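User: Please run a holo structure prediction.
Assistant: Happy to. Please share the sequence and the ligand.
User: Here you go; the ligand is pyridoxal-5'-phosphate.
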Amino acid sequence: MPMEPHTEGQHGAAAAPPGRDSGALAVAAPVLRDPLAGGLELFLRFPRLAEVLPWVVLGAYPTPVSRLHLPGATRGDGNPRGVEVWVKREDLTSPHYGGNKVRTIEGHIGRALARERRRIWATGAYGSNHALATAVHAARAGLQAGAILVPQPATATAKANLRALAATSCTITTAGHWLLRPGATLRLLRDPAQVVMTPGGAIPLGALGHVSAALELAAQVARGELPAPAHVVVTAGSTATAAGLLVGLHLAAALELGWRRPPQLVAVPVAPNPFASAPMIALLARATLRLLRASLGTERGAADRIDASALRRGLWVDSRHNGAGYGHPSPSGEAARRLYVEATALAAQRPDAEPPPVLDLVYTARSAAGMLALLPEAEGPVLHWMTKSAAPLAAASDADLQRLPRPLLRWLAQPEVEAPLGSPIAEGR
Ligand SMILES: Cc1ncc(COP(=O)(O)O)c(C=O)c1O
């Protein structure tokens, strides 16, 4: 019988059901072991993959695309009427807990189930979206979840995520610093019934979920739901999302689906160099392409037509939006949030206008800032890849919170890191 893990600062299993709330727009979908039934574009195009890759479908696909009017934005041509951009609503992958991480963990959870593991662990910062998505969706798939959490700035968003994590049955352990994570991981791996994901799930299996997302976008273009974007802008942290998208955008071109020339991928890092740098993203993209080719076997024709060196050329990394570093609100991100808030207020006055999605201050505010900076030079339609879950967060009870490891309780009691002056959060909006 495998031993229950025991590490310092561990959170005992609580009984609260995960994902008790549903998002206003996200569509509920059952957990499926069959990726074809789950509408995953990559598997629909290459059904053989369903035979060789362990997978579990956790989200509802395709996620919608929205047209967004940003009255305060400019393309640099002095046009005062604002700018229209497109948004891929990955915030709506699931009403239980959405965002990009849902796609990242599908392969990881599928593999853990296939290998009959009992518990899957995520590693992330105290307010990790990856940990929360794992806690919510592993439970839905019949697996126990664990989270190894390391400190980050105490922002309102990060605290809300941790409180929501406390409301799930996830086992939580803390490490004082990222450098101590390998030790915590090794201790957990003594029990063969457990599996610990790489931070952010950033291995080719995790990135494949986003290859599928890019093909899904291409299929939406082919159906006429939006024009082929010239640029796709996404936040990069562990790089799983950006690497998978890069491969998927090029695979669609090889399939002549949606476009012949792949859109440029613009990645906006949330961490300083060398994390989420162009070489790191390209490295994972090439490894993902290798996994795809190997899994496709004799059906690898389209994947073989992708020139691995073209992947790097199709990527631009804009690292100007990091401000004081990971987890801190950045000045250009806050300017982007202000613009989205203004657009929301204006949309409320026009019944035909779609309100923009809400930007979070760590991830999507940065990619929105990257997108706004790109607009004056854009060579065609621009699409913002919206990665932060829009699902309402579960509310933890006092009892849930009291079960948290002490370092996390102390962190929750810290004053919140403030946004730069004049930003929407600083003004309490
Ligand atoms: C909301 C959100 N957007 C984007 C990212 C970046 O995704 P990735 O880790 O795949 O680079 C993350 C990573 O944690 C995230 O939580």
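The first strand starts at residue 65 and ends at 70.
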